Structure formats: C-alpha cells, structure tokens
Amino acid sequence: MKTKSTGAKYSAIVGIGEQLKQLEQETGQKYLRLNRGIPTVTQIDLSEVIPLIDFNSAELQVYPPNSGLMRLKKAINHYYFNDTSSEENIMITAGGMNGLDLIFKTLDTSLVLLPEFYWGAYANILKINQIPFETYYSFENLLAKKEQYKDASVIICDPNNPMGNKYDDKMLLEMVRKLNVNDTNIIWDSPYRKLFIEGKDDFYSQLICYDKVIVCDSFSKSIGLSGQRLGFVHSNNKQFLEVFNINLLYATNGINAFAQILVEKILSTPQGQRAAFEFREATRIAMKQNIDYLREKGFLAEEFYQDSDPVGIFTVVKFSEKELLQHHIGSVGLYYFTIKKDGPAQDYSRLCISVPHEELKAYFDNI
Question: Are residues 249 and 325 in the same domain?
C-alpha cells in the first residue's frame, strides 16, 4: 500500500510517556511524569455544572452550527474580548492544535517564524501543510529584521511553551503594532495566559485592534478540560474567516456539542466561574511553590529568564533528560524544542511543573 509522507514526526512527549510506562512495568517503581503538558495539580470540579446541562435538548443531540454555538461565542467574546469583538469573528475548533492546522490551511503565507525554542507541534503542522519555517532568536532580533518578513507570519506564545516565561504586556503589544504595520501576520497562540490572569483583562481587546492578528486559543489549560478538545480562532479579516469556515466544515463537520455547552456554562454561570477559579487558583499556587523550590535549589535555568518571568506551566532546568531519568523523573530534553539540536540545549530539560508541590519536592529532594 502506498502512503503519502508528511515529513512530520510522532510526538516525542507521547513517546517519552510510553517509555516511562514501560519502565514502571519493568522495575515496579513509580516515575514522576513531568514530560506531559497539562495541569495536574487538581481537576476542575464540575459537580455543580453538569446539572445545568439538559442532555435531552436538541442543541446537544443534533449537528451544531459549523462555526460554533452562538451562546458559546458570546461567552468567549465577553470573557476574552470584553464584548469588543463580534461573534462572527469567532470560530470554534476541536482544540488548539486543530485551530492551528486550519489556520495554516487557510492562510496564504510564504514563511512562518517560530521562537528559537518552540512547541514541536508547530513545526510538524507546518511540515504537513508544506509551509517553510525559520526561527527568531528574540523579539528584538525579530523586529530588527522585520523588513525581511513582509507577508510572512509570526507565531507568538506567551507564556511560552517550552520555556514557561512571561513577557511584559506593553512590550508585546508594541511589538505586535510594529509587525502589523510591516504587513506581517501575527498568530497569537497563548492557551496559558488565562490560567494566570483573573478578573479584568483588556489585553485581547487591544490585540484584536490589529487587522493582521489571528488569535488561537483553547480551554485545555485555563479550565483544565484538555479531554474535551475545544478551542477557538479569532480574526477580523472577513476573507480569512470565509475560507477558514469552509476548511472547518470539511475537517470536522461541526465541533462536539457537549464540549461547547459545557464550556459555555463554565464561562457564563456562577457555578462554572467558581469551579474554574478554584481550579486555576490551586494550580497557580502549586506552580509558584515549585518554581520557588527549583530556584532555591539552584536547579532552575536562570539564564533563560533574564528579561522575562518564569510562571509555568513549564520550566527549564539544568539537567539533561537522561540525568533526570536516573532519579525517576520524566522530562523532555530541551533539544526537542529547537532546530539547533546539537547545541547547548542538550544539557537542559523542560518540565511541566503543574503538579502538586509535595510530589515534585519528594523526587527532587533526592538529587
């Protein structure tokens, strides 16, 4: 049987997880799985939210609207954009990765620029869609070369995966303004921001003022529902949205109605908002404890956080993947997240530090 090669590779993170499972079976010893990319400090408690859903409703049992349920899009407009956008600018997707894939299927771009250290799925999705990509060393480096990047596209993830660092909002918005003037497309993929920001946040409202900005987000991290595979894409460009909507139809034929109704209840009802806040608060507290602990032990790779703040859900430490494995700690070598795989990244690892503090401490105390 003949197949078409995509050029993409199977996820290293999934592969490492399979390796850890095998080691546990062979040795009978438990491994701390910090290779994964989801918050596991606690689960969101949906016990007061589920009774709000009518499982016998036609809305749940028939095909949903192609671009998403209107009431979910209204909730997103309110929660993310302070009602400054329009529901017509929002497309519901089957998670962030599906949203990114559809963006690259829709956007006519000659080149995509990734951060020096980037989520591996970016590169693999671009390979599947046969779009060339390069990396930029820093935001200053990106702006210095911006004349070369007219009609290109830039992906910005803040807080970042794999580094877990957060940059100043004013600086980020000024950079977006300069890139927008330069006719560079900006793909804003930040599924971690809402995990850290509570209450009034006008960042997204300012971000979507620029016509070259495409926002891609998901609910996997901010409300702990990675299993529901739900996200959204926002754009002000009508032509982009028309083509995106067609691609969305033939890729999904509508996104899971239950997931949409569930997230709408979480965003818009007192019971859901309380459950989401308690999930985020517990997660933030544990992550700060873990970062502070790694810093005190001298394990945190401070050299990567000179002009930004480590906040999570990821952190880079001064150990290789093999060194941590000797102490029964699963991680992902930093070299998986960069083009320069033979460089100094070999000596560092990315951890998902969104785990209970005492659990992380118990393993790292042995180093």
Answer: no
Q: Which of 268, 283, 303 is the last residue of a domain?
A: 268
Dump pLDDT digits (tens) for 100-125: 999 999 999 999 999 999 999 999 99
Domain CATH for 84: 3.40.640.10
The tokens of 129 are what? 């869609």
Find the helix or strand (DSSP H, E) in which 93 lies: strand 90-93
Euclidean distance between CA atoms 229 and 219, whole angstroms = 8
Residue 134 lies in a domain: yes
Q: Which two tokens stand for residue 131?
A: 């779009």
Q: What is the pTM of this model?
A: 0.95
Residue 113 structural domain: 63-268
3-class DSSP state of 119: coil
> Beta strands 185-189 and 112-115: pairing type?
unpaired
* Average pLDDT value for residue range 3-9: 84
Average pLDDT, the chain: 95
Backbone conformation region of residue 28, classed left if phi is above 0, alpha if psi is from -120 to 50, else beta? left
